[in-house]
Specification:
120 residues, alpha+beta, binds guanosine-5'-monophosphate, five-stranded antiparallel beta sheet, globular, binds zinc ion, 5 strands
């Protein structure tokens, strides 16, 4: 269920602090420690899952809960006119923390482009 060496598992168990904003039996949401937008939350399954690349059918309920809770979490934190949900995955996705997490990004103004468009 938890990986003793995983930083996000340690936030789940309370071993290290996190600014938690929502918790239920499947998922936990907390503020990103180094925000890149006025609203920057992380939402994770409470059970350790390294990456979306490792997801199995049994992970569906928690991953689904993340999707269905995202709009409410965004709205409750002031992103009431849209937001972006990002799940960086693996090396190419530049995932840094190996416990699946969705970034909820937003604010009052539109965010920057998702990625710079490659020059033709
Ligand atoms: P990734 O690049 O893996 O998608 O994003 C990892 C995110 O986790 C980064 O935005 C980083 O700021 C955040 N982060 C890393 N360590 C901690 C931590 O200990 N606490 C919190 N709240 N966020 C963290
Ligand atoms: Zn973990």
């Amino acid at each position: 269920m938890h990986d003793p060496n995983c930083i996000f598992c340690k936030i789940v168990t309370g071993e290290i602090p996190g600014k938690k904003v929502y918790e239920d039996e499947l998922i936990l949401a907390f503020h990103d420690i180094n925000p890149i937008a006025p609203v920057h939350l992380l939402v994770i399954p409470k059970a350790h899952l390294g990456s979306l690349a490792d997801a199995q059918a049994q992970d569906g309920p928690a991953l689904g809960r993340i999707m269905t809770m995202a709009a409410r979490l965004a709205r409750d934190h002031g992103a009431d006119d849209g937001f972006r949900l990002i799940v960086n995955t693996g090396r190419v996705g530049r995932q840094e923390v190996m416990h699946v997490h969705a970034h909820i990004l937003g604010g009052k103004e539109p965010l920057g482009a998702m990625l710079p468009r490659p020059k033709a």
